[in-house]
Design goal:
Layout: H1 2-87, H2 113-128, E1 135-140, H3 147-169, E2 176-182
Parallel strand pairs: 1-2
Helix pairs in contact: 2-3
Amino acid sequence: MRTKLFSIALSLAMVLALTGCATKKYVKQETGAVNTRVDGVEGQVEEAQARIDKHDKRLGEHEEQIGEASKTAQEALARAQEAGKLAEGKFLYETVLTDEKVKFGTDSSDLSPEAKAALDVFAEQIAAQNKSVYLEVQGHTDSVGSDKYNEELGLLRAEAVRRYLSQAHKFPLHRINVISYGETAPVADNA
């Protein structure tokens, strides 16, 4: 009985030993396969992280560009609102320089010394009152000549005033509008 018991125990030990070896071999195979897959996943994670980092960098650049664009838009909005207030007719200051003060020679758009002096006085008044103004310079002519010629001459005269105010007194050009009425809206007797 002892021998029988001994042989059963020995058989059982061998079975367990052989089973244990087989299990270790199986585990090594499976671990190797898992490690290979883990290595592949790690590579994919690293690639994904690199893409995320790249996108984060681009996103940061875009946020910076958006910030700059927003600042520019805010500045443009402020300028537009200021222009809008002026365009609504909320002018606090109105001056008309008539033909008596700003005279042009016949068929001429050259400013006379008297005209420049009148414009100098006007510009000094604006500067002294620190006015943020929008100017409309109207060009007029007499009735001599064709309508087209007078329209063009009136525009040249208005442009001469605009140019003088901009160059001599640093009025911003975007705040000076010119229009020609030619002979259609005279400021003096057109007879």
